Amino acid sequence: MRPVRRTVRLLSALALVGCAGAPAQPAGPAAESAAAYFPLAVGNQWTWLDRSPSLPRGEEKRRTVRIVSRDAEGYYLDDDRGALKAVGPCVQDRLRRILCAPFTVGRTWSSVVSVSSTEHYEIAGAGESARVPAGTFDACVRVRARTRAGPDAESVLEITYAPGVGPVRIETFAVVAGVTSPQVRAELESFRLEGR
Fold it and tell me: Cβ(185)–Cβ(51) under 8 Å?
């Protein structure tokens, strides 16, 4: 489960939400590039509202992540030690491709993150609407990542991306012996896109 947790940490660090209302978005799937669904620029900031089932009843936590610089390799670095960049049709961190176009339901790709761990990604939804505290977003893409966590267990990560905004919902699940248990649920509360 460790690779998926790292992905969740990175994305929640970079995808924390910020505006009071939903910004104008491209209509339909016109924005068919991963970079259009995860805007990377110095100054961009997201604030996430964590409503994970592991929190005490009624408790919520907020987490804000801001892109603070860009390194010599072209990675955008955030204030939570995350690093992302757009490469061809994908947005990736230093180990994995986390979002890849084209956004056709059923499209798959894999990322080998260590000798013993491969993450399998799939476009699980396209053209979806997502309602989160930051607003309602259309033309969203939902990506599902699966990682084997044992003989009869896997970790599942689902991230919903809105065009021009970035991740608006992050959820993780543990699946053990066919039983699914929710682990993390974070939704975009606000965002600020300063950079271009």
Answer: yes
Q: Would the pTM of this model clear 0.70, i.e. be above it?
A: yes
| pLDDT, position 141 | 97
Query: Is 50 exceeded by the pLDDT of residue 184?
Result: yes
pLDDT value at 176 more than 60: yes
Residue 25 has pLDDT above 50, yes or no: no
Place of tokens 């033309």: 139
Q: How many C-beta neighbours within 10 Å does residue 140 have? A: 23
What is the fold, at CATH topology level, of the domain defined by 2-192? Answer: YmcC-like fold (2.40.360)
- Rounded CA-CA distance 129/189 in Å is 16
* Pairwise CA distance, residues 190 & 129, whole Å: 17
Alpha helices in the chain (DSSP H): 2-14, 34-37
Q: Tell which residue, 32, 34, 54, 30, has the closest CA to residue 96.
A: 34
Would residue 115 be called left, alpha or beta, if left means φ above 0 and alpha means ψ between -120 and 50 degrees?
Answer: alpha
